[in-house]
Amino acid sequence: MISAPLLRRCCCLLSRRAGANRAAWTRRTVFLRGGPAMATGGKSSRSSIHRYTNRLINEKSPYLLQHAHNPVDWYPWGQEAFDKAKKENKLIFLSVGYSTCHWCHVMEQESFKNKEIGKILNDNFVCIKVDREERPDVDKVYMTFVQATSSGGGWPMSVWLTPDLKPFIGGTYFPPEDGIYQVGFRTVLLRIADQWKRNKNALLENSERIMSALLARAEISIKGEDSPPPFPEVMARCFQQLSESYDEEYGGFSEFPKFPTPVNLNFLFTYWALHRASPDGARALQMALHTLKMMAYGGIHDHIAQGFHRYSTDQRWHVPHFEKMLYDQGQLAVAYARAFQISGDEFFADVAADVLLYVSRDLSDRAGGFYSAEDADSYPTAKSKEKREGAFCVWTAEEIRRLLPEPVEGASERKTLADVFMHHYGVKEGGNVSPAKDPHKELRGQNVLIVQYSLELTAARFGLGLEQLKTMLAKSRERLCEARGHRPRPHLDTKMLASWNGLMISGFARSGAILGKEEYVSRAGRAAAFLRGRLFDASSGRLLRSCYRGKGSSVEQSAVPIQGFLEDYVFVIQALFDLYEASLNQSWLEWAVQLQRKQDELFWDSKGFAYFSSEAGDSSLLLRLKDDQDGVEPSANSVAVANLLRAACYSGNMEWVEKAGQILAAFSERLLKIPVALPEMARATVAFHRTLKQVVICGAPEGEDTKDLLRCVHSVFAPNKVLMLADGDSTGFLYHHLPFLSSLERKDGKATAYLCENFACSLPVTSSQELRRLLLL
Prior knowledge:
The chain is an alpha+beta fold.
């Protein structure tokens, strides 16, 4: 935290912002750290007449376009707005959000559509709107400030800047008018404008001090003789910290709100793989599998139309925040596929397939890319004039009884399909959402489906056979899905991001390899080809950040394309490695190595080591940051460590191993003290110190003996391995970069496996059983 004296003069403006009763408003204030005062609406109204149009009308971002008809004179982030602020000596009001953000909708409806508030903003500030998903670099700079100067952060993010872009006041959501616990947005604006007129020099001095403190706080580099921390200590401490926060009853790692956090689950799987025979290893696996099961049973999982919502507002994973994000689907598909790989339980395979079905159907562009998200809010009916959160997903008991009226044959009592369905999914006549989780009463009388009983218990309750019950529930879900299809759909953010597409490609590729589903691997390949065609500039070798669905089935790009950020490179490179292992198409390896070189060129910190999140040269960015936390997405440097080690194995370039060690050394202090903040990087310490196993299969790609060995490799969870096929093509990428492959031969004319470390290989293996045994060592 930045010390209080630096902020005293600024923060006195907002002295009425209190936080004493925050806990009572957890339902939708998890990101609203300014205080517990709630929005009065949170509902969007239909309107076909636009009285105002601002510069955002020329943008491609769905979020910016949502604000194009506000009475606020919004500017996109750019030189035009910066020049205006300096020329007119005005403060900048920066508002950052994203198109499926519920509270962003609330603040727009209450404040940004308000003519009087719009006039205050236009008269006193240069107003800039930023889509955080388009410009994560801008978002991270100012979120760092908000988190350092308050009790938290989130979206919408509201920050006031001097004309030279230095922040001095920040927050998240503000209600339009003063309340008991929180000062209103109108008052905040007037006070800040007044302070700028009367105490400009003091504000400028404070902004300089704040920036100096932020610069010092944000520095991550190797200090002195720092070296990569020992993996046993890092892994043990991370497991201990996760275990202490684990919810024994419902899974997950907090009481509420609860996020899926696949990075934690991936860590636990790796910890189990290292300690299979120990009590701690067994506990790690139990924690991961139980969490995944409870999530799949909960309301955070869409039981009717598949996929997962963003997070749960309660301990039981029951009442979600209803938006669906692409990055969650990609990571969760991998987590559930791995759970199947480890446990052999088809339940987890079914959930992985469920996620991929949702993405294929609802988040896929015809050209091959993946859309970013679906909104939480929608109109309850075609005639409704206001949107409500969750309206697309919830049910009344009356609706379900009307849709499922048939009597159940063979039941021990006279019951209908509705009776069985409502029992199994916890549907109540008056609704099953606690009022404490519904402060706006948007879900009153509604039901969020949650699996309340096992199939065995429900079958026993109604005297049904297990297969009969499964058929009945599937038929009921299909009927509800058809009925839901007649409701107005939530807003779909059709922006396509390189980074999130990378995560989703990994989801399809890894799931396809583990589950033996060629169609998933093929879908991953289509998406990778889309990225290469639409979000890659072959002339410069650079990735682009985003593209957009245009009219018809076209794909459009901004007039000035946004260049890719570090996260775009690391997630796409990871995806290409995953896709190679699933498809064995070496062109993906070649592109991955090309992108890794470009990533080094653009983002590597040659003095302090590790990668910056953004490239140098943008004068509008006050800080070049290095993320130091794995959150709902793993941090870019965490993934980069594994990418570098994989790239070295496939290319023979050992400088990349050295770089991986330098990243771990730069984050050494954090990894040793609070590794739970970096579980993905903690996993990577194992791969670095133990070195990756190169599993080389020598054989014809279409040979059944080759396929048998490949199936064996994909069936085993061995986290620190890379797979490659030596097919005898001396002109291919692998033979060109790895001369040792030429010395490997098939044994007795059969497909043969070799386990290699640092390019030195073991004795040949032709039996899948023996290969499995060696992989588990």
